[in-house]
Amino acid sequence: MPEEPYKIVFVTGTRADFGKLKSLMKRLQNIPEFEIHIFVTGMHMLSKYGYTCDEVEKSGLPNIYKYINQNNSDSMDHILAKTISGLSDYVREILPDLLIVHGDRVEALAGASVGALNNILTGHIEGGEVSGTIDELIRHAVTKMSHIHFVANEAARNRLVQLGENKESIYIIGSPDIDLMSPDSLLPIDNVRSRYEFSYEEYAVLIIHSVTSELDDIHSQIKIIVDEVIDSNLNYIVIFPNNDSGTDTIIKEYERFSCNPKFKVYPSMRFEYFLSLLNNAKFIIGNSSSGVREAPYFGVPTINLGTRQKNRVKCKSVINVEIKSGLINDAIGRVSSLTFEAEKLFGDGNSHQKFYDILISPNFWTTKTQKYFIDQKININ
Fold it and tell me: Is pLDDT of 2 > 80?
């Protein structure tokens, strides 16, 4: 290890990616060989979504830099440009040895772009996943601009190999959010009820994100979904969508819940509280990746609506439903009586330690920033 600590910048733009990165950052915190910096931007900086940069600051992590990369009317390409501009200036000041990005959001794409174009070693968490929407295009683009890959499982690793990535630069560490999901780690549900001021004994979770390739249909789709969940006469905890194009249409439709005691609506929820909420839910409904990743780990049923998670791993507890009147309530009726065993396809809850072990390996820091496409022998007939 060097005489001076390695400087590592983590880029976080959403409540979800911070939840996934947190265990990794905590593992490196207070280790003399590493100096942690956090570039906080995106949804974190918007009051509309709960101004979750406050939660980052309350985490006890060091060297937090906040950057506003958007206003409520910005398009995704404009947000990308503004994030690249701000992060580029930041890394020129910090001079990091490693840049870490997560997933498939615009902020990750900006981070990988800045890293690649400035010859900064860049690591991508959870590449190699598939969904079938614009998110997948961004995720694979981030992969191609990153030098090191920390993936969730063997299937993700194989996809990166198909994309021409060097096998020696791909590490399977599992999904870092699993580190927070063991029964001993979860908060008591009464703590969640107290903090977020709801009293439901039984409830479902509703999270709908905009599918940016289907914007022409978003108004009719969200109207059907809201109609169906109201008709179900169940209790729901509703959480705002990500800040993509079409989000305002969803939030506007949620105003129909405002005087209905069966619904509690929140701009955001701290990740640790959300995990406990999900673990105790009757089911989750919507198109969030939480329904196909975290919920199966708990054995909680998922009603997966529409196309946003079309190509994700198929778990037994996930019921795929078209967004059509009648079909959703049919699924709600069926899922309410179903029980499932937990499915653990994304790691063993030790991602933070695997991440640390990789970073203290001398070979890791000799990784070259010049990449070469690795051809694979395939049969195209």
Answer: no
Domains in the chain: boundaries? 6-179+349-366, 189-335
pLDDT in tens, 11-35: 999 988 999 999 999 999 999 999 9
- pLDDT by residue (tens digit) across 191-200? 999 999 999 9
Q: Is 291 helix (H, G, I), strand (E, B) or coil?
A: helix
- Asked: is 189-335 a CATH 2.60.40.1230 domain? The reply is no
CATH class assigned to 6-179+349-366: alpha beta
Q: Side by side, which strands form the sheet with 170-172?
A: 64-66, 34-40, 6-12, 98-102, 122-125, 148-151, 170-172
Helical residues (DSSP H) of the chain, grouped into ranges = 15-28, 53-58, 76-94, 106-117, 134-145, 154-162, 189-196, 218-232, 247-254, 271-279, 294-298, 327-335, 351-359
